[in-house]
Amino acid sequence: MIRAGDLRHRMAIQEETLTSDGMGSFTSVWTDVSGMDNVPFALWPLKVEEKTAFNAVGATMTHRIRMRYRDGVTAKMRGIFGTIGVSDLMPNIADRDFSAASAWANVDLGGGYNETDDLTITANAANQYCTLLVASAPITIGKRYRLSYDLANIVSTWKVRDFGGTQTLGTISANATQATIEFTAATAGGLRLVAVAANSSGDFDNFKLQEIRIFKFMPPTNMGEKDVALEIIVEEITDQ
Predict the structure, then answer these.
(1) pLDDT per position as a tens digit, 31-42
(2) What would be the CATH architecture of the domain defined by 93-212?
């Protein structure tokens, strides 16, 4: 039995694509499954005895999800919760879209720094950077986040770090529209864009920072009458 009132949450169901780098390693990219980018669902934590039973067979499952039946959902997929209808954690619009003076600051980028309509930055030496204060991009240690951004006219590569430079959140090497970096916070936040090469350059815009929760699926099961509702036991992932 699934009640409409229980379907209070929204998630995107994603599938993984592995791309070879030609040297024996693979890059993992998760993308939304067509038609499954805004799925209503109900969520409950597993009972202690249920967790104990899974632990006994080496599985660390944490929650139960229920949703209306959707064909094609498999245990190779995952659910992303927290990106739909959730406020941006960056409180100042100008820090996201550069529509006015922002809290971003040039530290030592010697090739150029301009906040007119977007954030255009150019280095003339490796490891030069600009920053955004912790108060303008606050996060909580141990929680998982997604940073989205637009990027045009990139040259070479940039690293995204926290304000203090101690945690690398991701590496950027291609133009994109609403590309994403997912990370588990090890610091209190803020951002630092660091040039990897002496000629690193790019035009950044439309930043978005959101807390997310990631659920790894077990094989779905039908609830009651066939093809009416699905139940999925999931593991919440916090350390990817």
Answers:
(1) 899 999 999 999
(2) Sandwich (2.60)
